[in-house]
Amino acid sequence: MKIGELAARTGVSVRSLRYYEQQGLLKPVRDESGYRDYSIFAEEQVRTIQLYLNLGLTTEQIAGFLHCVMKNKEAFCTEVFPIFRQKIAEIDAQINQLNHIKMNLEERMQSILDERQWDEMEE
Questions:
Q1: Mind listing the pLDDT tens digit for each residue in 65-94?
Q2: Which CATH code for domain 1-73?
Q3: CA 82, CA 120: separation in Å to the nearest integer?
Q4: What residue spans define the domains of the chain?
Q5: Cβ-based burial of 71 (10 A; exposed 0-12, middle 13-18, buried ≥19)
């Protein structure tokens, strides 16, 4: 199938499909005219890539285990767990940072409210 058909079937832009190819996630063959020709399995592969992108993984991380998960069940791919653990650690760090920012904002808001009340009392 051609790149436009794959894009239509998966809902992924042609530009993204070309990017996946650059990153080594998709490997179409070229026909005599130089056009990309994707196998019937490319649709499932693109959907799998999208699944992992939606989990917040990078194309580089996905490239490290995509071949394995396309051939086997995810549970049998030892490369997956360390990447998932790393992503969870990143998310935990982001949550901590956001909680700290939230706490600082709440303190600033309370400070503003306290100052307003003090000013009202002086009038």
A1: 999 999 998 888 999 999 999 999 999 999
A2: 1.10.1660.10
A3: 57
A4: 1-73, 78-123
A5: exposed
